[in-house]
Amino acid sequence: MIKDLVLMNGYGLFVWSSFAITFLTCAVVYYKTRKTLKKYEKEFAKEINELSSEQKKVVLESSKIASKVLSSYNKTF
Amino acid sequence: MLNFFYNSNIFLWIEKLINFINSIFFVLLLAALSFAIIFSPPDYLQGDSVRIMYVHVPAAWIGMGSFTCIALLSIINFIFKIKNITLITKSIAPIGLMFTCLAIVTGAIWGQPTWGTFWAWDARITSMLILTIFYFIFIATHKLISEKDKAHKISSIVAIVGLINIPIIKYSVEWWNTLHQPASIKITGSSTIHSSMLMPLMLMFFVLILYCALIFLMKYKTEIIRIKRKSIKRL
């Protein structure tokens, strides 16, 4: 049964390569997109941490995004 | 109601949606792959090579759908000048390009056992290649033109001009003699594909749409953070 599944009556190479190309590409794009997002989150959180305490307070009070990113960054590290 | 459209609220919803999609994605992917590779029957003419359809057709639909979406949003942006729309179109374009390329590559692989060639300059394939070129130009305008407003305007024009190509792709198999078969699935009228093949096809399409949503949300989130970083740097 496994042999049939792999060979697919002679079409195995075409079918499996199509699925492999599609899902490998998807996996690579997912990994790269996630990596870029994490990098931006990390840098953003670092920039907030580097602000003076007054500036930091203003930023965190005025921006939900900044406080959310900073809290998730602090959880990770 | 309008509060929902503030970037901060959108940002919080994006986080929830990403978590939700991540939690159901792999189960659905496994189900879709099982149906596509194991449970669906081989075609009476094409045999098992028909299984390539389960990745090729959704990829082509997503490639065309994404570009249509970008073009329509560009038209809305021309009229109403909504900043977020540019972020949305910028985030959709790479996904659309990826799936258009995948449709061309998997189509070429399907072409070899079915037509005896990987490539032919037939109307459907050529118009899909033109769609890829439009995607490249759209993305390149954002990358190469440093003046933001100018880049948005040019990319919008590219998208609107490229919209003409979408009906050409759709009806190319009816307007010209091509190697491609006519559409088996019709929105209006009865489809000629059997339900045992239609179900896995729709399931795979749904899974890939979820994947697109996931990538789009992550890209959109990245764009929002990028903008916020700029505003912090101004402090």
Task: Outline the secondary-structure elements.
The complex is a heterodimer of chains A (77) and B (235).
Chain A: H1 2-7, H2 12-50, H3 53-62, H4 64-76
Chain B: H1 7-39, H2 53-80, H3 83-115, H4 123-144, H5 148-162, H6 165-175, H7 195-233
Description of the structure:
The complex is a heterodimer of chains A (77) and B (235). Chain A has 77 residues and is mostly helical. Chain A has one domain (2-76). In chain A, 88% of the residues lie in helices and 0% in strands. Chain A is rod-shaped. Chain B has 235 residues and is mostly helical. Chain B has one domain (52-233). Helices cover 77% and strands 0% of the residues of chain B. Chain B contains 7 helices and no strands. Chain B has helices at residues 7-39, 53-80, 83-115, 123-144, 148-162, 165-175, 195-233. In chain B, helix 1 packs antiparallel against helix 7 (195-233) and helix 4 runs antiparallel to helix 5 (148-162). Chain B is globular, with a radius of gyration of 20 Å. The model of chain B has no long low-confidence stretch (mean pLDDT 90). The A-B interface holds A 5, 8-12, 14-15, 17-19, 21-22, 25-26, 29-30, 33-34, 36-37, 40-41, 43-44, 47-48, 51, 55, 58-59, 63-66, 68-69 and B 7-9, 11-12, 15, 33, 36-38, 42, 47-49, 51-52, 55-56, 59, 94-95, 98, 102, 105-106, 109-110, 112-113, 208, 211, 214-215, 218-219, 221-222, 224-226, 228-229, 232-233, 235.
Total helices of chain B: the number is 7
Question: What is the typical, i.e. mean, pLDDT of chain B?
Answer: 90
Q: Give the terminus-to-terminus CA distance of chain A.
A: 49 Å
The count of β-strands of chain A is: 0
Oligomeric state of shown chains = heterodimer
Shape of chain A: rod-shaped
Order of helices and strands of chain A: HHHH
The tally of helices of chain A reads 4
Strand content of chain B: under 5%
Span between termini of chain B: 30 Å
